[in-house]
Amino acid sequence: MALADIRQPSDLRPLTLPQLEALAEEIREFVVSAVSETGGHLGSNLGAVELTLALHRVFDSPRDAILWDTGHQAYIHKIVTGRRAGFNKLRQADGISGYPSREESIHDFIENSHASTVLSYAYGLAVARDAGQSTDRRHIVAVIGDGSMTGGMAYEALNNLGHSGKRVIVVLNDNGRSYAPTVSNLSQGALSNKLTDIRLNPVYVRRQRKIEKFLKNLPVIGTQAERGMEAFKAGVREFLQPPAFFEALGVRYVGPIDGHDLEALEHALKAAQQRVEEGPIVIHVITQKGRGYSPAEDDDEKHLHDAPVFNPATGPSKSVPTGYTEAFADTIVDLAKTDPRIVAITAAMPGPTGLIQFQEQFPDRFFDVGIAEQHAVTAAAGMAMGGMRPVVALYSTFLNRAWDQVVYDVALHRLPVIFCLDRAGITGDDGPSHHGIYDMALLSKVPGMRVLAPSSTQEVEQMLKDSITLANEGPVVIRYPKGKARSVDASDIGSGLAARKLLTDESNTVCILAIGKMVGASLDAAALLASKGIAATVWDVRSCAPLDQSMIENASAHKVVVTVEDGIREGGIGMTIEDVVTHASGSNHPVVEVLGIPKQFIPQAKPDAILSRIGLDAEGIATTVQRLVNK
């Protein structure tokens, strides 16, 4: 049967093993071809082909809930649940999401693109099922990667699953990678393989139960004999790290299983179905990230975890930092050469955040803590207490996970921690979960926090240098976007917490206060306005918290003030500016318009298209100014 004949999971069940193996290869070819046209997550999906086929042959989705963590390994799931035709617009505007999407299919239960959450979802679904609220739900299957198992939330959920005995099947998809190699101490070996063969044998399971019952019922010594058997089993488990770890939490463990052996996978999943009445069970599956596509298999850094548009015959060129990320990468290395206090911390993303060069040059001063942003921030606090200058490099959207730690572990102690937030603002293809739009609104409200937004690569360099000294008084944030970056002359940059006036309207009619990436669009808007006879003062805000008082005083003297930011509008920097300008303006009372990201979840599309649609491009800014001036 060809891939074109697979329209729903039930189409997989009549296939023979050779047909399934041929289908797996056809799926890999399809995924490489599709991702080469649109970009997307490649390596993780190439590694999950056989696992996905086995899951959908053994379980009956959506009657059985198959949950994915993280959702970037769900492309194959989308294909076999009827969405193959949508891959020509994968991650595009009005196309299918790169993650599971409840709006797309009844087979997608959770829109999960932030890691380590699926076991909590599974626990909650099991509670609802067992309470009779979802009586049609038979099995709950949670697929979680080994990278996601470095996040603390996963262990909180495991603890609850084991304690409660909820009937959940956990598939641990272990490819040794998160984005970079997984930071973890779970391992497996030959002895574990042999024991797995025994534990999956239903005859062994039945005999074990009979022996346990026999020992327990022995007169006088029954209790001691049963405890002795348990002690012996516990001793064996101590030789095997994963079994010992999981089963200490009350979660049964089976594995490792070859994740590319369809027969073995189906055998293990069916056995888990039979045993799940006993409580939660983990099936440890070993897969190869990037399997079947040599450019992915040969990529030492990330096995083509994600890829831009590329030629499938040759694969994508090696990923290197560009734009703002490149400026950060070069600057932190230069600073570290002369300041031994500087250390770099990231959460499983050394490549995307630009820390590979730092890792290579200062391996003892580089810390990848896995997908554990909360730990990263509080560990940085401890390092700062010890006299270091930690630089925490994360995506803006992922810092949300460590909000408590930022406020109470770092800011409350006024510690010299520097946060460098990449992918701030509208990021585009990965959709609502990855837009970094909350950082400025949240962080600017933290007492003592300095929030900086560079408008060029040169500003990134200057702000990072300044932050080493600024951090003497407490934490500093530098937030910058993905993609193209402005480049300016060395004389065209600011310093410290001062804003910069880039253009002056001598008539004091229009003042545009632009933040970060929006500076370029605002200068272009000023040029459009000038062509229509409207002059404008343009400020590069630079420091979002605290705001430069001289900028506020100048803005308050204008008749029209427009603030522009690529962060959430409500409660954002623009609204703060509106408040202080209004109070500083005396009797002038300028008209203030705040432009920013609306309070809504914004689906995937190219960043420039999204910004244009919500009026945050040059034309949109110019139109707003014209409307206010004409009033």
Main sheet strand line-up: 9-8-10-11-13-12-17
User: So what's the overall shape?
Assistant: globular
CATH class of the largest domain: Alpha Beta
At the fourth CATH level, what is the homologous superfamily of the largest domain? Thiamin diphosphate (ThDP)-binding fold, Pyr/PP domains
Mean pLDDT: 89
What is the number of domains?
Answer: 4
Strand residues, percent: 5-15%
Helix percentage: 40-55%
Alpha-carbon distance between the two ends: 67 Å
Work out the oligomeric state of the chains in this entry.
single chain
Q: What's the architecture of the largest domain, going by CATH?
A: 3-Layer(aba) Sandwich
Structure description:
This protein has 631 residues and is of the alpha/beta class. It folds into 4 domains: 3-188 and 241-294, 3-Layer(aba) Sandwich (Rossmann fold), CATH 3.40.50.970; 190-239; 323-479, Rossmann fold, CATH 3.40.50.970; 501-630, Rossmann fold (3-Layer(aba) Sandwich), CATH 3.40.50.920. The chain is 41% helix and 15% strand. Strand 12 (450-452), helix 19 (457-470) and strand 13 form a beta-alpha-beta unit. Helix 8 (202-216) packs across helix 9 (222-238).
